[in-house]
Fold:
Amino acid sequence: MDAMVASPDAGLGIPLTAAPLDFVSDRPNQEARGLPDPCVSTHIPTGSGPAAVAQREYEFRRLADLGIKYIRQDFYWHRIEPEQGRFEFDAYDRLVDEARTHGIGVIGLMVYGNPWATTATEDEITYPPDDPADYGNYVARTAEHFRGRIHRFELWNEANAGFRFFQPNIAGDPGAFARLIAAAYPMTKAVVPEVDIAIGGLFYHDGFGLLQPAPDFTEAMFQAVPELVSAYDAIGVHPYPQYPPVVGPEISNETEVDYLTMLDRIGAVVERHAQQPPRFWVTEIGWPVTMKVNQRQQAGFTARSLLLSAARELDVWCVYTLLDGDDDGSFLPESKFGLLKPYDPNMMEVPEASEKEAYGVLRDLIETMETVAAVRLVSVTEAAASAGVMAAKLYGQAGVNDRLAIWSTAETGGVEIRIQVDGRSVKVRPLGVSESTMEPMLGNGGFRLMAGTVPTLVELQP
Structure:
C-alpha cells in the first residue's frame, strides 16, 4: 500500500499548486457533457447449457457489484447469420436479457467477417466480405432485432491489426474497412435511427513497425472514402501503451505516447475531415499483471485512465477485461488482463477470493463518481509535475462535497506533496481503502501526503 502521512506542518513536501485549491470560480457550467459510462469489454459465454448459464450469472453478478453500466460483447456475424438471409438470435437474446435483468446495458461489437460472404476463405472469419452491403445488412438486422434493448453498436475491432482481425494484409486495409462502415451506418440508421454507432476501435501504436498506427490508418480511411465523414456517431479508440502494456497512461517517451495525446492525435485527423471534433468511446484499455506490472500498478493505471477519460468528457470507457483466462503457457499477457482471477464455479461462495486489487479500487472509484458532476485536471506546480505528480478535481453534485484525486506516475515509491486548502478540514483515503479524517493547521491551511500509484481522494469539508 502507498504510504500516507498527514501533518499540520505545511512547510514540508513539494507544493501541489501555486495557490490554495479553488473549486468555486472554475466550476464547470451546466453544459458539461458529464462522465463516461463505465464498461467492461467481455467475452461472456452465450450457450444454453448449465455451465454457460452459471458462468453468465457469476459474471453479471460481479459486473453489477463493480458498478458497471455497460458490457462490450462480441456479436459474431457467422453465428448470427450462418447462412445468407437466415438469422439466429436466440443465444444473444439470452445474454442481452440477462444483462438487463442486472441493470447492465450492452454495446454490440459487430464482428467479424463471414465465410459465406467472401471468396477469400472457406472457414476464416476475419476476412471482410466481398460486398460491404452484406455486412451492413447483418448490422441493420441485428440492430432492428434488439431495438429498445441495445442502444450502442461498434463496427469491427482493431481493423489495423490485420494479421489478427482484418486479413489478408498484416496491417489491415483502411479503404476496405471504411467501405464497410460507410455501407453499414446508413443501412442501420434507416431502420433504427436512434442507435449510436461507433467506428471500431483501432490499436494506437504501429506494433513495432508491423502495423499502421491509428492516426495514419484513420487518415487513410477518410481519404479513401470521403463520405465516411457522415457515417459514424462516435470514434472507438484503444489507447493501450505498447503491447504488452507495462507503463501508466500518462507516460510518453521514445516508444510510448500518453493516453490523452493519443486521443488528441486521432481527434485532429477526424476534425480535419469532418470539420468538428469527434465523440470518443474508449472501447478497450487495460493492463495485464505480469512480472513487469504488479496488482497495485494494474489497479492504479486502470483508475487513472478512467479519471483521464472523465476529464476529457468521453462517452464510454471500457476496461479489458473482467476475468483472467486460463494460462495455457502460449502467451502469458493475453490471459492476465482480468480484474478477477479465472472463473471457478466455487468462487460464488467466496467472491472476494477471486478479486485482484484493481477490482476493489475500480469499484470504489465508480461508486465515488456516481456523485460527481464533472472532472477536471489540475494545473500543478513545475516541481510537482517534474516529480510525476498529477491531480484531478472531482466536482460534487448538489449537496456532495468536492474531492481531489492525487497520484504519482513515478515508477518507484511515492512523492511527498503539500496541499493548500484554505484551512478547511479534509478526509483523505487512497482508493480501495477505508476512510480516515485529517485536520490541517488553520494558520497556513495546508497538509501533506504521499502520492502513489493508486490515486488518493481528498474530500474537502464545508
